[in-house]
Design a protein that fits this description.
Elements lengths: L12 H42 L1 H14 L2 E5 L6 H16 L3 E6 L17 E2 L4 H9 L3 E5 L11 H4 L6 E5 L10 E4 L6 H13 L6 H14 L10 H11 L5 H9 L4 H13 L1 E4 L4 E6 L1 H6 L22 E7 L4 E7 L5 H8 L3 E2 L3 E6 L3 H11 L13
Parallel strand pairs: 1-2, 1-4, 2-3, 4-5, 5-6, 8-9
Antiparallel strand pairs: 7-8, 9-10, 10-12, 11-12
Helix pairs in contact: 1-2, 2-6, 3-7, 6-7, 7-8, 7-9
């Protein structure tokens, strides 16, 4: 507030000083009194986020101490887990296996079948497929490590089992606005991926020798998938430094990228062709294009979980398009994914209109309505952003 240049030579000095004192007494003081309870309740949380976001050694020390004494660890990630969630979780899973520690990796729902080649994939517990087993495992945990999400809504039905649990909880994530759902939180939104942060933590806490080739493969997969093979969220030097270090463990990057992107069924390619040819709408006046797929569309092409991964990126290859989306019909809602170029905030659209969030150029959410109504909602909000949805925003 004090942008005033204080000097006794300035004849308005005392008048200005009295003005600010008056302003504080009449406006700021009452606000502080009204909000003091809220501040006291939340000050530890905000200090924790600030400290751990700027002094990672503090997080490293405390998190390592919890891991060292834990005997039954649960690794947990978000619903509809992507490559970063699975890569980060399996990195921890394989790390603890090397330490001869009991660990279980749990996800709320469906897995991406094209990543089943990863070590430990078949050991992952899908909560919705065996709720009672998942609840029992969580109940017996003496440490819970949550990765690649920062809000209870991303846990879906697993939240009811996890959040009341009294055991220590650690959260590592790179999405904005972390919620207070863990005892130790490492949040760094400048990171390309959670996998990048997991590597930093493992190296700092246990040394480089703790990173095996298998762990490096998992982390490389997380970074590659969350950056679209370094096409977004990857302008930080540290990302490439870590990728270089992962390569030093002898991983075959070409093999991994081939497994990620060239490991689909024939039907997936045919579904992509159908989506672009018949289910893509281009709105040049808004610099926007979107794809929409019904359950019938997916059934017609023997849809498997993960088949639509990457579809949302294709409209961005059209000249003048800076914002793309894909809408996929689900049983009781419509799944939404967004991508953008340049400075247009895809995550803002997801957060304000589709109960979601994410990063500036890559975000997602959902809409509790039919596919048709979701599309109508999407088109109705585009005029709000028209002045930003131009090639000039690149």
């Amino acid at each position: 507030m004090f942008f005033y240049k204080f000097t006794y030579k300035n004849k308005h000095f005392y008048q200005t000083l009295l003005y600010y004192i008056h302003f504080f007494v009449l406006i700021i003081k009452p606000l502080l009194i009204v909000n003091c309870y809220f501040c006291l309740q939340n000050i530890n949380y905000y200090l924790k986020i600030i400290i751990l976001n700027t002094i990672s050694s503090s997080f490293t020390k405390n998190a390592k101490a919890e891991i060292d004494k834990a005997q039954n660890i649960v690794i947990l990630s978000h619903k509809n887990p992507d490559g970063d969630a699975l890569g980060s979780g399996l990195a921890f899973y394989n790390l603890f296996a090397n330490f001869n520690k009991k660990a279980t990796f749990i996800v709320p729902n469906q897995l991406l079948v094209y990543l089943k080649w990863m070590d430990g994939f078949n050991d992952i517990i899908v909560f919705e497929n065996n709720k009672s087993k998942g609840q029992e495992i969580i109940k017996s945990a003496d440490l819970i490590i949550m990765i690649d999400f920062n809000h209870r809504s991303r846990l879906s039905q697993v939240a009811d089992s996890v959040l009341p649990h009294k055991c220590p909880k650690i959260l590592i994530d790179h999405h904005p606005d972390p919620e207070n759902i863990a005892d130790l939180i490492y949040s760094r939104i400048s990171s390309s991926s959670t996998a990048e942060m997991v590597y930093e933590f493992i190296e700092a806490a246990f040394g480089k020798d703790a990173v095996s080739k298998t762990i490096a493969e998992c982390l490389f997969t997380g970074i590659v998938t969350d950056t679209g093979t370094f096409s977004y969220n990857s302008s930080n030097q540290i990302t490439f430094k870590i990728v270089g270090e992962l390569l030093s463990f002898g991983i075959d990057k070409d093999y991994i990228i081939d497994k990620i992107y060239n490991n689909y069924s024939e039907y997936r390619l045919r579904l992509l062709g159908h989506a672009i040819n018949s289910k893509m709408k281009v709105l040049h006046e808004y610099g926007t294009a979107y794809i929409y797929l019904s359950q019938k569309d997916m059934d017609s092409y023997n849809f498997e979980q993960g088949d639509t991964e990457g579809f949302v990126n294709f409209p961005l290859s059209i000249k003048g398009i800076v914002f793309s989306a894909i809408f996929i019909e689900k049983d009781n809602y419509t799944k939404c994914s967004f991508r953008s170029k340049g400075d247009f905030p895809a995550n803002l659209v997801a957060k304000e209109h589709f109960s979601g969030g994410g990063h500036k150029n890559a975000a997602g959410g959902e809409y509790k309505a039919s596919l048709k109504k979701t599309i109508e909602q999407f088109e109705s909000i585009l005029p709000e952003y028209k002045k930003y949805l131009t090639v000039k925003s690149l």
